[in-house]
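README: folding subset

This subset contains proteins for which both the sequence and a predicted structure token string are available. Records are stored as plain text. Below is the entry for Acylneuraminate cytidylyltransferase (242 residues), shown exactly as it appears on disk.
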Amino acid sequence: MNIGIVTQVRVTSSRLPAKVLLTAGGHSFLEHHLHRLQETGLPVIIATTTNYHDDVILEVAKHAGVPVFRGSEDDVLSRFAGAARAHELDGLVRVTSDCPLIDPTIIAAGVDRWRSEKDPNLYISNCLERTYPRGMDYEIFSAARLYDAEERATLQADREHVTPYLHQNRSGEMRLLNLPWTGGGASYRLCLDTPDDWKLLDALFEDHAATGLNCAELVEILDTHPELSALNAHIEQKKLGE
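--- output ---
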């Protein structure tokens, strides 16, 4: 079974434009993200847009040895389906590129569980219920269910956010499984969406050697240094459809 990680990337983000190209620890946040994904041993595919602003993503991808699929800027669901078809995937791990510290061991464990279940209608995630810090999120599902969503989903939020049709079980055929975390830190933000997120991530990379740290070690740092987590504690996550 061919399972690949598909990460969505664009530089025209509203709250922090070109955020994935900002740097810390000597590399762009996109480079950090891709390196961590590659540590899973799974194929990694970038799904970006046909917008000329995203041409710059191709150079980063080429340097990292990661293939790129380009599709609709607004219909991200169709973009993911196109990436799956182009790379003949049977199953997908969906992640977003604003997660430069995503833990590859967490993703790998989720994929192992999904493989073992042998159920094409199974959707596995670690964020159906928030137990991990933001920035560790993944979703796993079959290409068959993705193609079904591509054909049937009509709401704008479904098309923009890829998976609501699946994890809200609009088809009535999905089996949902959340894999929780008991290590704490559910209120922490290790994602990159605002300038204050950037401040925290920069501090972690520059002052705390975050490049080589896993989720538990990152949570321990934030537990020990509350002044760090306070940098972006006030940020409200954008709601579905915003």
